[in-house]
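Limitations
The structure tokens in this dataset are predictions for the assembled complex, not deposited experimental models. Users should treat interface geometry with appropriate caution, especially where small molecules or nucleic acid strands are included. An illustrative entry is reproduced here so readers can see what is and is not provided.
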Amino acid sequence: MSRLTCYSSASACIEVIMSEDLLRQVAAELNKAPGAAERTPRMTGLVVENNTRVATAAIQDMAFDSTPYAYQAWLAGMDKR
Amino acid sequence: MQSAIAALDLCALADAVAKGEVTSVKATTVALERLDLIGRKLNAVVRLDDERVLNAAEAVDKLRASGAALPVLHGVPLAHKDLFYRAGDLSGGGSKIRADFRADVTATVIARLDAAGALDLGRLQLAEFAMSPTGYNESLGHARNPWNPGHVPGGSSSGSGVAIAARLVTGSLGTDTGGSLRHPGAMCGLIGLKPTWGLVPTDGVMPLSASLDCTGPLARTARDAARLLSVIADRDYEATLDRGVTGMRIAIPGGYYRELLHPDVATVLDEAVKTLRSLGVTIVETTPPDMALINALMQVVMSVEAATIHRRWLIDRPQDYADQVRSRIEPGLLYPATRYVEALSLRTQITQQWIASCIGSADLALLPAISIPVPTIAATTEGNPADVAAVIGQLTHCTRGINYLGLPGASVPCGFDAAGLPIAFQLVGRPYAEADILRAAHAYQGATDWHHRVPDAAELN
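Predicted assembly:
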């Protein structure tokens, strides 16, 4: 089991637990990729770390009314052409 | 004569063809011969379309002779990364899996180059599926750095970098998802310009990660890059090129961006900063935000989008990926959908924070392009996998985050290391600051001669 409970820049840490077995299941059953499932052990550390960082930042900093499409609108507004 | 033509940069060649000093047929013949001889030796070439391009060259020479108005790249031969589709042509993406794929559309950027009079010689080598900062390609062979063939040329637009540095072509289109224009630019001694995300069309270009992918030019000079960007972005980047940099403010972020900096690279970058100061630039120091978060956001977006388009082959043909490539895609299968949406939803505010922290009140930020000297091919392919992964991670330390932010950035050659390999700095700007980046790079190149140096592999002497 891989666990990352905190990182230095977070004022409020979120405990995230992702077991290798869970990730293996996601690869094998949700994505139908048995080869990737076999290689889960080498990916677990990276996935847990990135998942925790993003999950924590989202809880702390992401506005409730945010949208993944806001970035394109912001970029368009930055274009002075 | 052949060497004299090969030595011309893109704008000089375009001028020579427009004035009739060099025919397009001659320029094209020289490029084809050099790509076939030197380009194949350096493993930079995937495919050349000799007959078609020579016919096109004859046609453009006739057009010039007729006195017709000529477009800005009239009769200039170019070749591009093998990700750019032309209807009816093969487009393998550096892979075994797509080796037989024939496009049924032509990329908008290729059509824009056609309309500007450029000739399309064929396609150049790249990392498998554009997935390596070194240019690593296990199935097609590694492209070799013309400054020292034992070293990597940088990727993923490796063949583009090699071909321009070795004076085989004057310019080339590549793509940049985590540094794939800036890496070969830095490692081959070229301007590699990653535009603002969305500025240049990416339709008809094999995708890796749609939210991060950018199409852009590689060239020897900022002026050449400006000419190419003007065509593919359909805007004018040449008009402001000569305005100088007096009064420009350039920020130098410390912290994360200095963490891995090799002393030899640091010395060369310090000299480049002195040169910029001498040109009238004001230098200010800034402090980057939490880059570990930005790198995590980039990894989530890139790997999820890549895994989405590759999943069919990860299931059916996993053995046809190099392990080094597959290992960068597969983590994308494992993130919850909420992480991906969160990563995209945070993009605006994280980008604004980075700009405020790293650029602040300045016009541009100056970062290392690559923090370490250009590694050997062996150092990035052999030995302990953890050591190889560490070197590869170091290569993207200063580039990959910029793709999540969507900001424009360019490599600018500024010296050489002890082994004779190029060193470069990277200029990064606010969205749509390409003109400022090119203006600063052009002013710097006007005061230095790094971009005029020619590797022995070019065989021009």
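Some entries come with short summary sentences. For this one: Chain B has 17 helices and eleven strands.
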